[in-house]
Amino acid sequence: MAPNILFLVIDALRIDHCSTYGYERETTPTMTRLAEEGVRYDHAFAPSIWTPTVHGAIFTGKYPSHTGIYGNSLGIPDDLETLPEALKRQGYRTFAASAGAHIRKSRGYARGVDDYVETRRIGADLDFAQKVLGDRSFAKQVGFTLTRGPDDKTRYKYDRLERFVDDAADDGDPFFGFINAKTAHQPFNPPRPYKQMFTEGLERPRWEFLERAMEALGRRAQDLPGHDIEKLRQVSHSGGDGVFAGEVEMSEEEWAVIEAWYDGAVRYLDDLVGELMAFLESKGVYEDTMVVVTSDHGDNFGDHGGLTSHIFSLYDTLLHVPLVIKPPRSGSGSGSVAGDSAAGDAAPAGKRIDNQVSLVDLHPTFLEAAGETPPDYDLTESLLGFEDRRYHDYTFAEYAGFDGPIERLQRKYPDFDATRFARPLQAVRDDEHKLIVTGPLNGEHDRELYAWREDPGEDRDLLGERTDVADELLGVMRDTLEPLDDAGEFEAPDDEELEEQLKDLGYL
């Protein structure tokens, strides 16, 4: 029997904030456990730097410039088969939860999904009471939010996934489940006790409903003695727009507070993964399930001279992501596909992969595990076998911008020229160097070159010293990628609820 597959994305998670990878705070103990039972990839890289383009690449198995899923054009084209559609053809029952306003039904992410959860549609409205009475997962989310605080409906997603797994396991069907959880995304305000977990001295009411009541009365609900709490909350909520525009200065101590809030959100999400693993064990399906935990991109906290959020750059603060795979251990997996047990017992526990892989490789990995032959695409390889081999001579990343953040920055800071960031970005990485090109590949552009293994912080631009290397990598990009010269036409959504969610996420 083909293995079950769970694909869990912790949105905006930097690899250097994961205790699994050596971070000093205990942020990801569940990820560490999964790595000890499976495989940890030390050099996994995202194909882009924000949610819709990364997920578009994984769900189609192709880089953004080869699908057109970039810029303002973010829907999956009708002529491209999605990952759930391919898995459903192999007999899988499928589940997916929308990622805020991005991974949504109207963009094609519900195609091939038996149980699709559109979380942006579960807010309070005239049908609120009916929702609470009719959906126990929603009722749990409401109770959690009113007592412990908001988590961007993450608990709702996980509860719905558990209900889906419960039904599939009882029926004996192989299942695929996908969740993108955004609690570690701005505004970095995780529920109790996680915001205080790594922030000594943070004061807030015991219950969320008390905090909301205080705010409604114009009273300060949270405080951190020795710090300007309102400044910190404004920066964290906006993703640091004022810092990026040069209007707000942040000290290292202030950034440390925001990172502590972020770390609390990461731990909260990791704990939810732990609860899900316990549920799988209680249902007797843990051993038969491939669990993949990763992130779609990282985040910036004043890095590289004041960068914030995850826009306008292709540095590894955004591209270098955690990736842990716990293979099925019962002999299922490619043992039932290719006559061996590459996805099962042959994958040694605690294995570390040093060679570079791309998140786009997850697409053929999932398909091969399910017994499906992956499409013919030269730039991806299945990770099954879990060998520390050279998967790729080159991996790539692309970002064509998005008009929403540019317009938002221009509106908030009229003297700041945000339009200069409306240029495409593409990058290529071999085993030693990484080239970033800002501007059209075949036109006037800027270049940066880094030795990414020796200089993981990308502090030293080697372009002037190794022009021949940069020229060679530029040739690879020109031969491999398509130009990002048409970002599509930006249209504000004709949907007040969706527009508000995009604003909360910092995209409008």
Can you give a write-up of this model?
With 508 residues, this protein is of the alpha/beta class. Helices cover 35% and strands 15% of the residues. It contains 18 helices and 15 strands. The strands form three sheets. Strands 1, 2, 3, 4, 5, 6, 9, 10 and 11 form a nine-stranded mixed beta sheet that branches. A four-stranded antiparallel beta sheet has the order 12-13-14-15, covered by helices on one side. Strands 7-8 form a two-stranded antiparallel sheet. Helix 6 (136-148) runs antiparallel to helix 7 (154-171), helix 7 (154-171) packs parallel to helix 12 (252-283) and helix 10 (229-238) packs across helix 12 (252-283). The longest helix has 32 residues, at 252-283. The termini are far apart. The model is unreliable at 331-345 (pLDDT under 50).
Quick synopsis:
The chain has 508 residues and is α/β, with parallel strands linked by helices. The protein has 18 helices and 15 strands.
Task: Provide keyphrases for this structure.
15 strands, alpha/beta, four-stranded antiparallel β-sheet, nine-stranded mixed β-sheet, 508 residues
